[in-house]
Design brief:
The chain has 178 residues and is α+β, with helices and mostly antiparallel strands. It is 50% helix and 15% strand. This is peptidyl-tRNA hydrolase.
């Protein structure tokens, strides 16, 4: 049987590349414009995930009883279902929308960006029936003060966020998973 890539693997690969670029950008921000070498992929060690979990736990507030919804941030990618795009095209468009939303959040100094980055940059893919529904979602999100991004020259994917999960759910909570 020939090896084939399904939608899940394409999206994961796209998000992995974006994550690598985000880490490189974060390193540039930390070192204040100094030249930073381009990122090099390393083999993952078994100890790395545990160290990352400990690091994240150290950054969390000591008062875990506080309402987590206030601090939980996410990015939602809403894909038009009527275009009949292939899995690779959907993955590429989601990657473009994610990067566009991230760049916009950086440019506008989004107060949610750091929280979103610190909590693993959660991304959820949902589907919209057509362009009209996508435009309605964008209008609703903008009316609620949300951040949206649709890639230039196309209306294939709408990115909502990064922002508070509760606010994003108000706009997109009725949509089905991709």
């Amino acid at each position: 049987m020939a090896a084939s890539f399904d939608y899940f693997h394409v999206v994961i690969a796209s998000f992995g590349l974006i994550l690598l670029l985000l880490m490189w950008r974060l390193a540039q921000r930390i070192f204040g414009g100094k030249q930073v070498a381009a990122p090099v992929a390393k083999k993952a060690s078994k100890a790395a995930p545990a160290a990352a979990d400990r690091s994240r736990q150290g950054r969390r507030k000591k008062n875990d009883d506080a309402d987590d919804d206030e601090h939980e941030c996410k990015l939602v990618l809403i894909v038009r279902n009527d275009l009949g795009m292939g899995k690779g095209k959907i993955g590429a468009q989601c990657g473009h929308a994610t990067l566009g939303a991230y760049k916009k959040a950086l440019r506008t100094n989004s107060p949610y960006l750091e929280s979103w980055e610190d909590n693993g940059q959660p991304k959820i893919c949902l589907k919209a029936n057509d362009e009209e529904e996508l435009d309605q979602l964008r209008t609703t999100a903008n009316a609620k003060g949300g951040r949206t991004q649709i890639a230039e020259g196309s209306r294939t994917v709408l990115a909502l966020g990064p922002g508070p999960a509760g606010l994003i759910d108000e706009v997109s909570g009725h949509l089905k998973l991709m």
